[in-house]
Structure formats: C-alpha cells, structure tokens
Write a structure and sequence with these properties.
Elements: H1 25-30, H2 34-41, E1 91-92, E2 98-103, E3 115-121, E4 126-131, E5 137-143, E6 145-153, E7 156-163, E8 167-170, E9 175-180, E10 186-192, E11 200-201, H3 202-207, H4 211-218, H5 222-226, E12 235-236
Antiparallel strand pairs: 1-2, 2-3, 3-10, 4-9, 4-11, 4-12, 5-8, 5-10, 6-7, 6-9
Length: about 240
C-alpha cells in the first residue's frame, strides 16, 4: 500500500450519486454519436474511438504535473476551493487531552455547506461531554479505538465502541462524549452539514449557570459546581 493514496469523499447531499448530480465524462462520450463529437470538438470521427466506458469511479492512470492556466484568472482567497490544512498547526485543547484543527467558513470561506474538525485524543483522553446545536455530527474514525455514549433525552441512551474505518452519526443536539479506549492516539473527523463547527460544552454551560440552581437540580454541593471550568475544555484527560 506504500505506493497508493487513500482519501475520503464527503458530500453534503445523500443523492450525490443520483443521475444529474455526478457523471463520468467517458460515459458521456461513449453515449454520444461520433459525428456529433467530431463536430463539437473539431476532430475527426475516430478521435474518440478508443474511449472506454469502464463504469467505475477508479481506474489506472498516471499523476499529472501539468499546470493549466485560465484567461479568467485564478480562484484565490475567498474564492479558492483549496485549503492547505496540512500546513496549519493544530490547536492544543485547553483540557490538555489532545488537539483540534477546525476547517469551516471562518478560515475556508467557500465552504458554506460543510464544516470539519480534525480531532486527536491522547491515550486516556476524552472529547468532553457536549452537543451540537446547528447540525447532525458525522464521525469518521481514522485511527485508534473509542467509546461513546449517545444521549437523546427522556432516558434514551446507548453506548458504542468504535475502531478505525468506522462511521458514526450523532443527531443534532444529542449529548455525547468520545473517549480514547486504546494505547495509541485516537484520530477522527467531525463533519457537519453547516458553515461552522459549533458545540456546547456541558461543563462550561453548567459553570456559567447560577451555582445554587445547578446544585439543586443535580443534588451536588455548590463548591463542586464552583469547581467546574468556565472555559470550554474540548478534550480532557
């Protein structure tokens, strides 16, 4: 596998592969009369005789080193469809349990329908209890092992174990955490059909509420509530 590349395709619409949404150029060519192709491209009738219709997304080929210019200029700055995430440093979580790298419209303006956070959780660390108020959350586990409990309210909850290659979805506003259960770094993607990555920390929310009221609701001492961090921890250890 050393000479192969692996990539993850993420779409903001479940019908991405339906007719009219995605198409293969070779499929289109092979379903067009040769004389029409010749007239359209200004070539002879046999120019596309060897164009095949493999009907598959991947096929053998060679990487191109060619740069194509455009008389209309380049797509740069806010119009760019490329964000060099590999060149951006991850942010250390305040809770000390790992790092996050957020890629949304705040840094990638053209990405208005998808937002992503790359999360790395150290062994023994945990993505703190939280929820997302603006979108369902899709997870793709890149490496490591994890456990999460999803809470939907009214006593509806379930705990799941995950490993590399698994895909997970947490419904909008559903409470959850994600704990690293292995000895290696847990790496995963949080994906949202939204323009921003937004979450609400349970501890921060409680810490910024009147401690006497939190004490009454949870039947815990006021000093315990006052010990909650008012800063979002993101990942704890």
């Amino acid at each position: 596998m050393d000479d192969m590349n692996e990539y993850l395709l993420i779409f903001d619409d479940g019908n991405f592969n339906a007719p009219g949404f995605t198409f293969s150029v070779d499929n289109w060519i092979t379903h067009t009369p040769p004389d029409v192709l010749a007239k359209n491209f200004g070539v002879n009738n046999t120019a596309f005789a060897n164009t095949a219709n493999p009907d598959k997304a991947l096929q053998p080929g060679k990487a191109s080193n060619t740069t194509v210019g455009s008389p209309f200029g380049q797509l740069t700055d806010n119009s760019s469809y490329h964000y060099p995430a590999s060149q951006v440093n991850a942010t250390e979580a305040p809770g000390g349990g790992g790092t996050v790298k957020i890629i949304d419209s705040s840094v990638f303006p053209i990405a208005t329908t998808l937002a992503v956070t790359l999360v790395e959780v150290q062994p023994g660390g945990m993505r703190e209890m939280h929820w997302h108020p603006n979108s369902d959350e899709w997870l793709y586990i890149q490496s490591g092992t994890a456990r999460a409990t999803l809470w939907l309210g009214t006593s509806l909850a379930r705990t799941f174990d995950f490993s590399a290659g698994d895909t997970v979805v947490f419904p909008i506003s559903a409470g959850h955490y994600i704990e690293n259960t292995g000895n290696d770094t847990l790496s995963y993607l949080e994906v949202f059909k939204a323009d921003r990555c937004i979450d609400v920390s349970l501890m921060q929310w409680l810490a910024l509420s009147p401690p006497d009221l939190v004490s009454q609701v949870l039947n815990i001492s006021v000093p315990t509530v006052q010990n909650f961090s008012e800063t979002k921890q993101i990942i704890v250890k």
